[in-house]
Structure prediction request, 208 residues.
Amino acid sequence: MSDQDHSATFNPDQLRAEAAIRRAAKKGNPEAQFRLGVMYGNGDGVGLDYEQALAWFEKAAAQGHENSLITMAWMYASGAGVEADEDRARKLYLQAAELGSAKAQYVVGTMFRFAQYGVKKDVAAAVDWYLKAANQGMATAQFALGKMLMEGKGVMQDDAAALQWLSLAHVNGSKRAEDYVKHLIKRMDPADVRAVRERMTAPPGSAG
Prediction:
């Protein structure tokens, strides 16, 4: 009875979509494999099955699918549906970061900044990874960089660079950045603030 009630919640469009995703996944399409993994991981249109979810994520990850790598890393980091494994999580996050995932680059930066997932603290490496993510427009990485530069924790304090990164973070949606920007402007020389603003609004290639 309960099974019947459960299947009745799926409309024909959902069933057709699930069948199409499954066909594409079986043919080796990594995005379809990822989506099928998500469906199993959430019990969305199929029975909840972490083993199946992980199997499909692994197939997609083997083809360099970034979201699959990140999702698997999160599963191993948090022990969601699998036994927690920091080493496995670290390797997966690094793999996704090296493929260019801004989200993974931010996680790896934080990993080195706070000595997480079995790595030693390395602020220089943290800054390098934050920069990679920040240069892709990721507000959380821009905020982290700006805050570090503003406070001079592990890096040389640089209010001008901090203002630039925190302003970008605010523009890209970081609500926390606004208060830091205001604080920086209060303590900086107005001429230095203007110079940063001019540099940020200057058309590309107009410097010098």
The two ends are 75 Å apart (CA to CA). The mean pLDDT is 91. The chain is about 70% helix and 0% strand.
